Amino acid sequence: MSTILVTGGAGFIGSHISDALIDDGHKVVVVDDLSQGNLKNLNPNAVFYRLDICDPSLELVFEKERPEYVCHHAAQIDVRKSVVDPMYDARVNINGFLNILSCSVKRGVKGVIFASSGGVVYGEPEVLPVPEVHPKGPLSPYGVSKLSSEYYLYYYNKVFGLPYIALRYANVYGPRQDPLGEAGVVAIFSNKMLRGEVPTIYGDGNQVRDYVYVGDVARANLLSLRQLDSISLPSSIDDHAFNIGTSVGTSVNELYSLLSSIIGFKERAIHDEPRKGELYRTFLNIDKAKDKLGFKPSVSLRDGLEMTVNYFRAMK
């Protein structure tokens, strides 16, 4: 059993990872300021600290709990908010992460798993599905902060010997996702349809994304944890980066149709102008994660959407 610090562990993805780690026999320490997380998501067997990751007192948590590993999922996650307020995005996603890395080195952490984003670090891709070695070209401050964080991890590994794995997620969806936020189209569409409201699609709806179920993402973190002790030194940021998705592209129109079918919603979507900073077409090559981590998505899009809809139905 290891002690693992999960930042953002009361949030959508972090809470599922915390559950999986606890089920696997680990002690989990959660740090979350609840700006996006919710106490209802928190595993009752986790040790909880309500704390901003930028707070200098984070070091006291490291000193008291002595985590062996860090799973970093606390973040500003809204692409559109990052465009409007890039300084806030950088404060949380870069400065907060540097605070975590500094504490990790001081307290002898054995390894870090970092939630990066395969949806934004590559920019508008030239090759589909997108491999990890694809040229990087983030088109939003959020994407820039994720890519910058990977370079900081590379630096901390090279200079301080801190092992790490960066998981470049596709579009993660599932139970506990915020249906009232700006990020998370599955949760937003589901919530509106279940309330009898017509969702809005920004753009023509032909935008393509790779949708991966949150349970598969949690399992990817478990698999990564088992690799941290034996991972080799990187020669580039891509060496320790793994795309986590399905390698299948689904348009927003197709997603809308699937959800409408599951829910029994008959109305056509409202269309509005596309939003700045968002990609048009991307989905991920996951061959490397299959080969090196043993990761393979186990939940189909329809099954995942049905479980998500059932969750939101029960919450009504």
UniProtKB/TrEMBL annotation:
Residues 4-245 form the NAD-dependent epimerase/dehydratase domain. SUPFAM superfamilies: NAD(P)-binding Rossmann-fold domains. Transmembrane segments: none annotated. Belongs to the NAD(P)-dependent epimerase/dehydratase family. This is UDP-glucose 4-epimerase. It comes from Acetomicrobium flavidum. The lineage of its organism: Bacteria, Thermotogati, Synergistota, Synergistia, Synergistales.
